[in-house]
Specification:
- It is built from 3 helices and 13 strands.
- The protein is mainly beta.
Protein backbone atom coordinates (compact mmCIF):
# COMPACT_ATOMS: atom_id res chain seq x y z
CA UNK A 1 0.00 0.00 0.00
CA UNK A 2 1.33 3.35 -0.89
CA UNK A 3 0.37 6.48 1.01
CA UNK A 4 1.70 9.02 -1.38
CA UNK A 5 1.12 12.75 -1.20
CA UNK A 6 -0.69 14.11 -4.20
CA UNK A 7 2.02 15.97 -6.08
CA UNK A 8 2.59 17.16 -9.61
CA UNK A 9 6.08 17.31 -11.06
CA UNK A 10 6.25 18.67 -14.57
CA UNK A 11 8.80 20.19 -16.87
CA UNK A 12 8.21 23.09 -19.17
CA UNK A 13 8.53 22.03 -22.82
CA UNK A 14 9.95 23.74 -25.89
CA UNK A 15 13.29 24.79 -24.46
CA UNK A 16 16.63 23.05 -24.05
CA UNK A 17 16.89 24.43 -20.54
CA UNK A 18 13.32 23.60 -19.46
CA UNK A 19 12.57 24.47 -15.86
CA UNK A 20 11.01 22.10 -13.32
CA UNK A 21 7.61 23.18 -12.00
CA UNK A 22 7.45 23.47 -8.21
CA UNK A 23 6.00 20.41 -6.53
CA UNK A 24 2.65 21.19 -4.92
CA UNK A 25 1.66 20.07 -1.47
CA UNK A 26 -1.77 18.48 -0.83
CA UNK A 27 -4.58 21.07 -0.44
CA UNK A 28 -5.04 20.51 3.31
CA UNK A 29 -1.29 20.92 3.88
CA UNK A 30 -1.12 24.07 1.76
CA UNK A 31 -4.06 25.64 3.60
CA UNK A 32 -3.52 24.53 7.21
CA UNK A 33 0.12 23.45 7.56
CA UNK A 34 0.94 25.57 10.62
CA UNK A 35 -1.37 27.42 13.03
CA UNK A 36 -0.67 29.26 16.28
CA UNK A 37 -3.32 27.42 18.34
CA UNK A 38 -5.97 24.70 17.97
CA UNK A 39 -8.81 27.14 17.41
CA UNK A 40 -6.98 28.44 14.34
CA UNK A 41 -6.59 24.86 13.08
CA UNK A 42 -10.34 24.23 13.33
CA UNK A 43 -11.15 27.51 11.59
CA UNK A 44 -8.86 26.57 8.71
CA UNK A 45 -10.36 23.08 8.37
CA UNK A 46 -13.90 24.47 8.50
CA UNK A 47 -13.14 26.55 5.43
CA UNK A 48 -12.17 23.42 3.48
CA UNK A 49 -15.18 21.29 4.41
CA UNK A 50 -15.73 19.12 7.46
CA UNK A 51 -13.50 17.17 9.84
CA UNK A 52 -13.50 14.91 12.86
CA UNK A 53 -10.80 13.99 15.38
CA UNK A 54 -10.18 10.22 15.19
CA UNK A 55 -7.33 9.79 17.70
CA UNK A 56 -5.66 11.96 20.34
CA UNK A 57 -2.35 11.75 22.18
CA UNK A 58 -0.67 14.09 24.65
CA UNK A 59 0.49 16.59 22.02
CA UNK A 60 -0.99 15.17 18.84
CA UNK A 61 -4.41 14.91 17.19
CA UNK A 62 -5.28 12.80 14.18
CA UNK A 63 -7.98 14.43 12.06
CA UNK A 64 -9.96 13.05 9.11
CA UNK A 65 -10.79 15.80 6.63
CA UNK A 66 -13.47 15.93 3.93
CA UNK A 67 -13.22 18.67 1.29
CA UNK A 68 -16.01 20.53 -0.47
CA UNK A 69 -15.11 20.47 -4.14
CA UNK A 70 -15.83 23.61 -6.19
CA UNK A 71 -19.29 23.53 -7.75
CA UNK A 72 -20.85 21.14 -5.25
CA UNK A 73 -24.55 21.59 -4.60
CA UNK A 74 -26.22 21.33 -1.20
CA UNK A 75 -26.42 17.65 -0.30
CA UNK A 76 -23.60 16.55 -2.61
CA UNK A 77 -21.01 14.38 -0.82
CA UNK A 78 -17.66 15.86 0.15
CA UNK A 79 -14.42 14.19 -0.91
CA UNK A 80 -12.47 12.24 1.69
CA UNK A 81 -9.06 13.92 1.74
CA UNK A 82 -7.46 11.49 4.22
CA UNK A 83 -6.19 11.84 7.78
CA UNK A 84 -3.73 14.44 9.05
CA UNK A 85 -1.60 14.30 12.17
CA UNK A 86 -1.41 17.69 13.87
CA UNK A 87 1.48 17.88 16.34
CA UNK A 88 1.87 20.63 18.92
CA UNK A 89 5.36 22.11 18.80
CA UNK A 90 7.44 23.40 21.71
CA UNK A 91 6.28 26.98 21.04
CA UNK A 92 2.62 25.91 21.25
CA UNK A 93 1.90 26.05 17.51
CA UNK A 94 0.23 23.14 15.71
CA UNK A 95 1.99 21.68 12.66
CA UNK A 96 0.93 18.91 10.26
CA UNK A 97 3.42 16.19 11.15
CA UNK A 98 2.00 13.27 9.18
CA UNK A 99 -0.59 12.34 6.57
CA UNK A 100 -2.26 9.25 5.13
CA UNK A 101 -4.59 9.07 2.13
CA UNK A 102 -6.12 6.11 0.38
CA UNK A 103 -9.37 4.60 -0.83
CA UNK A 104 -11.40 3.09 2.05
CA UNK A 105 -8.53 3.77 4.45
CA UNK A 106 -9.30 3.02 8.11
CA UNK A 107 -7.37 4.21 11.15
CA UNK A 108 -6.33 1.26 13.32
CA UNK A 109 -4.04 2.88 15.87
CA UNK A 110 -1.89 5.91 16.64
CA UNK A 111 1.09 5.69 18.98
CA UNK A 112 4.08 7.78 19.99
CA UNK A 113 7.38 5.97 19.30
CA UNK A 114 10.97 6.81 20.16
CA UNK A 115 13.50 5.68 17.55
CA UNK A 116 17.12 6.77 17.38
CA UNK A 117 16.34 8.99 20.39
CA UNK A 118 13.72 10.92 18.42
CA UNK A 119 10.08 11.03 19.54
CA UNK A 120 7.87 10.45 16.51
CA UNK A 121 4.59 8.74 15.69
CA UNK A 122 3.40 5.45 14.25
CA UNK A 123 0.09 5.51 12.42
CA UNK A 124 -1.43 2.10 11.65
CA UNK A 125 -3.83 2.09 8.69
CA UNK A 126 -5.83 -0.57 6.88
CA UNK A 127 -7.50 -0.77 3.47
CA UNK A 128 -9.89 -3.14 1.72
CA UNK A 129 -10.40 -3.22 -2.03
CA UNK A 130 -12.23 -5.49 -4.45
CA UNK A 131 -10.71 -5.94 -7.89
CA UNK A 132 -10.48 -8.43 -10.77
CA UNK A 133 -7.33 -10.54 -10.71
CA UNK A 134 -5.92 -13.21 -13.00
CA UNK A 135 -3.45 -15.77 -11.63
CA UNK A 136 -1.45 -18.24 -13.70
CA UNK A 137 -3.20 -17.13 -16.92
CA UNK A 138 -6.58 -18.23 -15.54
CA UNK A 139 -9.70 -16.13 -16.25
CA UNK A 140 -9.89 -13.15 -13.89
CA UNK A 141 -11.89 -13.47 -10.68
CA UNK A 142 -12.96 -10.78 -8.23
CA UNK A 143 -10.70 -10.80 -5.18
CA UNK A 144 -10.64 -8.93 -1.89
CA UNK A 145 -7.29 -7.40 -0.94
CA UNK A 146 -6.80 -6.49 2.71
CA UNK A 147 -3.69 -4.53 3.61
CA UNK A 148 -2.25 -3.07 6.77
CA UNK A 149 0.61 -0.60 7.00
CA UNK A 150 2.44 1.27 9.72
CA UNK A 151 3.34 4.83 8.79
CA UNK A 152 6.29 6.28 10.70
CA UNK A 153 5.98 10.06 10.93
CA UNK A 154 8.78 12.33 12.11
CA UNK A 155 6.33 14.91 13.43
CA UNK A 156 7.37 18.07 11.60
CA UNK A 157 6.52 17.15 7.98
CA UNK A 158 3.47 15.53 6.42
CA UNK A 159 5.51 12.85 4.63
CA UNK A 160 5.75 9.53 6.47
CA UNK A 161 7.63 6.28 5.80
CA UNK A 162 5.13 3.58 4.76
CA UNK A 163 5.96 0.12 6.17
CA UNK A 164 3.55 -2.58 4.87
CA UNK A 165 3.05 -5.34 7.46
CA UNK A 166 0.04 -7.46 6.42
CA UNK A 167 -1.60 -8.47 3.14
CA UNK A 168 -4.32 -11.02 2.29
CA UNK A 169 -5.73 -11.72 -1.16
CA UNK A 170 -8.92 -13.77 -0.93
CA UNK A 171 -11.79 -14.94 -3.11
CA UNK A 172 -14.90 -16.91 -2.12
CA UNK A 173 -13.43 -17.79 1.25
CA UNK A 174 -10.13 -19.02 -0.20
CA UNK A 175 -6.83 -17.28 0.55
CA UNK A 176 -4.74 -16.95 -2.62
CA UNK A 177 -1.82 -14.85 -1.37
CA UNK A 178 -0.81 -13.91 2.16
CA UNK A 179 1.86 -12.15 4.19
CA UNK A 180 1.70 -11.35 7.91
CA UNK A 181 4.75 -9.63 9.31
CA UNK A 182 6.01 -8.25 12.61
CA UNK A 183 8.14 -5.13 12.96
CA UNK A 184 11.25 -4.43 15.00
CA UNK A 185 13.64 -1.51 15.20
CA UNK A 186 17.27 -2.03 14.19
CA UNK A 187 19.24 1.16 14.74
CA UNK A 188 17.47 3.79 12.66
CA UNK A 189 15.66 1.21 10.50
CA UNK A 190 12.36 -0.64 10.80
CA UNK A 191 12.63 -4.31 9.86
CA UNK A 192 9.64 -6.45 8.85
CA UNK A 193 10.01 -10.14 9.72
CA UNK A 194 7.70 -12.76 8.22
CA UNK A 195 7.33 -15.70 5.84
CA UNK A 196 6.94 -14.35 2.30
CA UNK A 197 6.69 -17.78 0.65
CA UNK A 198 3.06 -17.22 -0.32
CA UNK A 199 3.13 -13.44 -0.74
CA UNK A 200 3.29 -13.41 -4.53
CA UNK A 201 3.96 -10.14 -6.33
CA UNK A 202 0.96 -8.40 -4.75
CA UNK A 203 1.87 -8.95 -1.09
CA UNK A 204 5.66 -8.80 -1.44
CA UNK A 205 7.39 -5.78 0.10
CA UNK A 206 10.83 -4.66 1.22
CA UNK A 207 11.95 -6.20 4.54
CA UNK A 208 13.84 -3.10 5.69
CA UNK A 209 12.96 0.61 5.76
CA UNK A 210 15.37 3.40 6.67
CA UNK A 211 13.61 6.19 8.55
CA UNK A 212 16.39 8.76 8.45
CA UNK A 213 15.30 10.20 11.81
CA UNK A 214 17.92 12.43 13.36
CA UNK A 215 18.81 12.17 17.03
CA UNK A 216 17.46 14.99 19.19
Amino acid sequence: MRWAALAIVAAAAGSADARMVRRRDPPVVEACRNRKDWSEVTKCLDKLGSFRVERTLDRARLVRVSIREPGLLDGDPERDAGVYLFVQQKDGTWLIGGMATGVNATVIDLAAVTIHRHLGYRLDMGTLEHTPLSLDRAPPVTVSIRRRSSLYCYGNDYRCIDVPTDCDVMTRGTTLLVFHGTTRVDGGDVVVDGDASYAGSICTSSPRFTLGWEMD
